[in-house]
């Protein structure tokens, strides 16, 4: 601008100088519009007009001089210059407002200089209108305006280096402050977009793009951000071109678009004539390159390159910081994941080693999210079969019931349930389940931890225990009742036996015989009660099961009738058992009669025996070791689950009232338990019933020690008998029976009385007959005391009490000769003669 003004003054002394001066001055708008064209498009018609008008003004000056129809050439040309300068000043101000940093400041100075010249032109027109000859007055003002214009253009197009440095530093601080509040990862993620935004604001340009190096080591880059969205994602190969050179050298360059790589050269050439490229580098790592394309070349090339390099370095720093933070966090995450995997592996191994409990995790909707080996063992589902399935089917619930259960667990913190659970194959079991909601965590989905245990066997054992305790209590009651009843029956049977003998030939003897029969039936009832309660006092002997049952078959066939057949599948090699022969016969008889009642239309009863080995682990009864199996099965009506459960209870029967006492099967159960065995029932409605009885096999030593059959009993010869019985009704009867049959009797009501009588007795005692349970010393304790002074003294124990109520006594004093109440006088005399004969 100053050059134009200086040239216009020099040309004042040259011919046609005024015309040339007018051309030079009026050409200034065209030059300024070309300057504006660096940062925005200028209409081509406007550019053409600004080229043609200076020539028109020159012709005007040559032809018409300074006069004309519009008030003179000077006024019109000056007005034209003022308007055009004002327009250019506005365009520069608007661009300065859109820009930041050094570029904005330089455009502001350029806009101010242009506006000053436009203002000077406007003032000149005013003076021209008001005063004819204004040169003398205007020159000082013109010099001031020109000076201000030159100063502004100086700071706009050639500012001092120190000033531009301060401008750049202020812009750098502002840019850093603008992004400082972001997290490092966010700054790194937005670095390319921030770089595009900063380049547009500080440098401008028709096209800006950022190409970054991926992790590949071939040196190629790809465009990750651009003002033209079509370029994003375009790969740029390794060529000996501008971008590769900037990446290699790390120095910003200004070049032509065709100097770029072939992948972007055509796009750059269509967008402008100059390309500024700066490396995105900070430290040893080069991240990529940023490029800005100008339409007409860089307006301030040095400042634009420095600003672009500065922005690129800041972006590289953000990327470095983000990469460092991400790397550290990634290392921490990997360490945490490794520890978590180790913990999950240990916990998983621990959980998978627990197979008795089903452990699983449900999400908030009740869908299975985690499934451990214990759950597969309990429920039978594999992980693949149950994955993403609802847990409702596992607990045999509907979806609504299951969601209600989960809601209760969420509300109360825990929910427990014991009920039916269903396996994969459809079978059910009793499961005890505890469900707890997972501890809520931020951004973590809700869920539930579920633990289920199969308690079917436990509940069955508890039921068996309760059943056993109930039957034990009933047995104790039955034993106590039978004890007192047996004393009464013994007296009834004994005295009635005497009456039969005394009333021989009397018609009333038949009535006494009926009394005996009633007493015998009552005695049989007490024996059944004691058999059920497992309280009978018996002398166990070795029993060969097969011959015993074979001897009963003809009688059993007559009892069950012709419509029912008995199948014998007994094994001849079946081992022997220890027990009472009559009790075992009673067991077989009761089972066969029970089977007969289950066959109202006839059928078949099968009796089977075999040697079996019981395993405590696999046996449902908890038996172990060698046993003899006695199995009685029928093809009858069968039993339901409730009937099977109560079959061995006393007084429980399915027969009509008055048709049975309900003691048949309970007697069987009591005898089997007393012999050390156990029983089970296998039956379903309509499919018959099978009773399996397990008896311990007799040991070889017991079989070898079996006593020989007793010989004929000799007649009494006045042996001396010590009788000890606490029952006031029974003692006189026993005395009369013994004395009436030739025995001498010394009677006492208790053990202490008997000992005092024996101390004053000088003659030997041949036999002691004592009740087992008495006030003070028991019968075995009395015998033990007598054996100290009278070694080898035989003893006969009589009792209606239960064996389980006997107090502990030394082994050598245990009763070897037993007589269970009630008994007749004949039973007593026979037993006494047997003992005395063996003594």
Structural overview:
- The protein has 839 residues and is α+β, with helices and mostly antiparallel strands.
- The protein is 51% helix and 17% strand.
- A six-stranded antiparallel β-sheet has the order 3-2-1-6-5-4, with helices on both faces. It has a five-stranded antiparallel β-sheet with strand order 8-7-11-10-9, with helices on both faces.
- Strand 1 and strand 2 form a beta hairpin.
- The chain is rod-shaped and about 190 Å long.
- The protein starts with a helix and ends with a helix.
What is the arithmetic mean of pLDDT? 78
Outline the biggest β-sheet.
6 strands, antiparallel
Rg (C-alpha, Å): 62 Å
The global form is rod-shaped
Determine the structural class based on helices, strands and strand pairing. Answer: alpha+beta
**Strand residues, percent:** 15-25%
End-to-end distance, in Å? 159 Å
Tally the beta strands: 23
With strands numbered from the N-terminus, the spatial order across the biggest sheet is: 3-2-1-6-5-4
Low-confidence stretches: 9-15, 128-132, 657-661, 709-714, 803-815
Helix content: 40-55%
Count of helical regions: 27
């Amino acid at each position: 601008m100053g050059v134009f003004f200086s040239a216009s003054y020099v040309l004042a002394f040259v011919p046609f100088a005024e015309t040339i001066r007018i051309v030079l001055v009026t050409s200034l708008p065209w030059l300024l519009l070309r300057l504006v064209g660096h940062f925005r498009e200028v209409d081509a018609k406007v550019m053409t007009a600004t080229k043609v008008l200076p020539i028109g003004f020159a012709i005007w000056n040559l032809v018409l001089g300074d006069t004309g129809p519009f008030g003179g050439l000077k006024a019109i040309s000056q007005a034209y210059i003022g308007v055009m300068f004002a327009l250019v000043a506005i365009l520069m101000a608007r661009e300065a407002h859109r820009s930041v940093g050094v570029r904005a400041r330089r455009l502001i100075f350029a806009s101010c200089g242009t506006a000053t010249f436009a203002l000077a032109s406007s003032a000149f027109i005013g003076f021209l209108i008001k005063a004819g000859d204004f040169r003398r007055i205007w020159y000082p003002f013109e010099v001031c305006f020109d000076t201000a214009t030159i100063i502004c253009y100086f700071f706009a197009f050639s500012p001092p280096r120190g000033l531009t440095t301060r401008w750049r530093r202020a812009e750098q601080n502002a840019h850093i402050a603008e992004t400082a509040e972001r997290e490092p990862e966010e700054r790194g993620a937005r670095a390319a977009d921030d770089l595009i935004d900063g380049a547009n604001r500080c440098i401008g340009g028709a096209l800006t793009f950022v190409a970054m190096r991926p992790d590949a080591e071939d040196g190629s880059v790809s465009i990750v951000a651009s003002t033209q969205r079509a370029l994003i994602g375009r790969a740029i190969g390794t060529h000996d071109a501008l971008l590769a050179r900037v990446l290699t050298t790390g120095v910003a360059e200004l070049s032509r678009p065709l100097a770029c790589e072939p992948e972007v050269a055509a796009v750059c050439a269509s967008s402008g004539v100059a390309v500024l490229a700066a490396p995105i580098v900070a430290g040893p790592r080069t991240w990529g390159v940023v490029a800005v394309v100008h339409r007409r070349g860089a307006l301030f090339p040095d400042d634009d390159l420095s600003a672009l390099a500065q922005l690129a370095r800041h972006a590289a720093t953000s990327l470095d910081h983000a990469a460092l933070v991400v790397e550290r966090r990634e290392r921490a995450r990997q360490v945490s994941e490794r520890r978590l995997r180790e913990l999950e592996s240990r916990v998983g191994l621990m959980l998978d080693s627990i197979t008795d409990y089903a452990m699983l995790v449900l999400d908030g909707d009740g869908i299975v999210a985690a499934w451990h080996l214990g759950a597969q063992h309990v429920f039978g589902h594999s992980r693949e079969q149950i994955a993403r399935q609802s847990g409702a089917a596992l607990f045999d619930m509907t979806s609504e019931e299951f969601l209600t259960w989960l809601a209760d667990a969420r509300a109360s913190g825990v929910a427990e349930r014991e009920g039916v659970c269903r396996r994969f194959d459809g079978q059910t079991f009793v499961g005890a389940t505890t469900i707890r909601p997972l501890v809520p965590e931020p951004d973590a989905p809700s869920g539930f931890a579920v633990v289920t245990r199969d308690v079917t066997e436990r509940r069955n054992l508890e039921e068996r225990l309760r059943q056993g305790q109930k039957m034990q209590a009933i047995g104790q009651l039955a034993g106590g009742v039978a004890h007192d009843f047996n004393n009464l029956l013994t007296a009834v049977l004994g005295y009635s036996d005497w009456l039969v003998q005394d009333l021989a030939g009397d018609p009333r003897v038949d009535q006494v015989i009926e009394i005996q029969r009633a007493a015998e039936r009552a005695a049989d009832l007490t024996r059944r009660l004691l058999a059920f309660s497992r309280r009978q006092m018996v002398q166990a002997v070795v029993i060969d099961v097969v011959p015993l049952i074979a001897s009963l078959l003809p009688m059993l066939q007559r009892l069950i009738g012709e419509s029912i057949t008995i199948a014998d599948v007994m094994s001849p090699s079946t081992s022997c058992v220890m027990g009472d022969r009559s009790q075992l016969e009673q067991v077989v008889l009761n089972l066969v009669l029970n089977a007969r009642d289950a066959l109202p239309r006839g059928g078949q009863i099968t009796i089977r025996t075999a040697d079996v080995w019981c395993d405590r682990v696999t046996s449902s009864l908890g038996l172990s070791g060698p046993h003899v199996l006695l199995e009685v099965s029928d093809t009858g009506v069968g039993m339901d689950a409730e009937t099977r459960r109560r079959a061995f209870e006393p007084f429980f029967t399915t027969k009509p009232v008055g048709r049975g006492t309900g003691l048949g099967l309970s007697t069987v159960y009591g005898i089997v338990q007393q012999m050390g065995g156990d029983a089970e029932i296998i039956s379903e409605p309509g499919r018959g019933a099978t009773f399996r009885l397990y008896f311990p096999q007799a040991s070889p030593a017991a079989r070898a020690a079996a006593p020989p059959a007793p010989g004929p009993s000799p007649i009494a010869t006045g042996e001396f008998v010590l009788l000890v019985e606490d029952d006031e009704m029974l003692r006189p009867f026993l005395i009369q029976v013994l004395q009436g049959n030739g025995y001498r009797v010394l009677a006492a009501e208790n053990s202490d009385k008997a000992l005092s009588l024996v101390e004053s007795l000088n003659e030997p005692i041949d036999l002691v007959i004592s009740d087992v349970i008495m006030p003070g010393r028991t019968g075995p304790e009395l015998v033990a005391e007598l054996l100290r002074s009278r070694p080898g003294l035989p003893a006969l124990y009589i009792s209606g009490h239960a064996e389980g109520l006997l107090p502990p006594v030394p082994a050598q004093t245990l009763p070897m000769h037993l007589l269970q109440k009630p008994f007749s006088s004949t039973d007593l005399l026979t037993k006494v003669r047997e003992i005395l004969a063996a003594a």
